[in-house]
């Protein structure tokens, strides 16, 4: 059992806690923007039409009082589009079955898909596919966001390809259509295994009446072209005709119940709560990420019984590795301790990842790294080879990976510790996270040195005043681009979470992961030891 050395009465602890609470207040404000959807005017108009909001639909679809793990709520943050990207996605339990649920938010520009909606929807389908989760779409969308069609039309074809691939993999796809589902949107019900349409509300057509008139001159109306009644009685696209939205959600639940769905992963062991309160996770990460912290303090507040069987504790001490359980599911944990990764840490990580693959144990990466060590001694000692070996191991490891960015995530450390490009099954950030190719001051300093050398080579005098201004500007830009809201906005994680929720979120992810069988181990690439 980990013995905590944290003192919750300590002034430093309280300072860190205050700073984290301030960041969480900002996070709440950003989440509130996503929940507000298209704003009061459009929400009121939607309600006046007797319709439920996207999140209300989700709430009525999932089992009463069961949790919903919303994914990427900050998508589109920092872009020209509203926070949340006009779609709600997440994992919820329907009739006892964990499902991936995706709901258009029709209060945001008619629920049209902008480039961030597309990325969020593709990510949702990817999660459903890799974790074998039935995929339920709550459809009401104006299709492609027309002014940005160039960003979405061609890559957007994947939405429909993914739906058919899910179906081909035996993963059920269900569409509940509440309103408009035009053009490309019509292929969502078109590609789904099960389709429910709401009477007098669902409108599913390749082209609406104006387009038909333009194309063929034919006079038509919404109902005969794509109404729910027509699709239920004539075209056969709808399997069920719902009286209203509630009825559609009831039918959706009934469809899931009839799937007789069985999870194919491992059963969890009995669950034991950690010995230390999650509340104390607020006071661990320092504001200045250059100050190291002991990740065992985090592990002690996340894993079952605070029990952690540390592996190679005396070797490569800047990376903590070991075995634990979360909500009864065994995991191997890799957590940065001092920030920097040296050769020994890389070798230790590689061995540990191989061991986890041998025993088919999922891996949890807790990131707080400034990257691999630079300098003559380290280069001569083979830091490139050893870092490459660790990255090779992470890339080819077949057990499920989970990543939490607690603090720094800089340079190739982001890669070795299973950053987004290494496709962990789920990746969450804490509000204290920062990620970039290197720290803002270092990056500005490198640009300055390079600029100075270039001026010298041209025989010019270096503009010192301009250099100071450039450094300040670059530092501010990189700092802003390193922050978790910005990165979450670009879908580089699956959400920014309250550190206190880490155990719950990871438990839900581990449960979802085990809907699929644990993939068989396969080989690694050539290691250069
Ligand atoms: N692209 C960009 N903006 C869109 C849009 C789209 N596909 N669909 C709707 N919007 C915008 C509207 O311009 C409007 O903006 P505004 O309020 O700032 O002026 C806002 O979303 C709400 O649209 P509105 O038509 O008032 O909402 P509605 O609920 O009455 O109708 C639709 C919604 C989706 C039925 C209707 O907007 C529509 O038919 N859109 C076009 C559908 C289409 O042909 N899409 C092609 C897909 S390939």
Kindly describe this structure:
Strands 1, 2, 3, 4, 5, 6, 7 and 8 form an 8-stranded mixed beta sheet that branches. Strands 9, 10, 11, 13, 15, 16 and 17 form a 7-stranded mixed beta sheet that branches. Strands 12-14 form a two-stranded parallel sheet. The longest helix is centred in the N-terminal third of the chain and has 26 residues, at about 10-35. It is built from 20 helices and 17 strands. It folds into 3 domains: about 1-35 and about 265-435 and about 485-529, Alpha-Beta Complex (2-enoyl-CoA Hydratase, Chain A, domain 1); about 40-255, 2-enoyl-CoA Hydratase, Chain A, domain 1 (Alpha-Beta Complex); about 440-480, no CATH class. It is α/β, with parallel strands linked by helices. A hairpin with a 2-residue loop joins strand 2 and strand 3 (about 95-105). Coenzyme A (COA) binds near residues 110, 143, 144, 145 and 184. Coenzyme A binds near residues 110, 112, 142, 180 and 182.
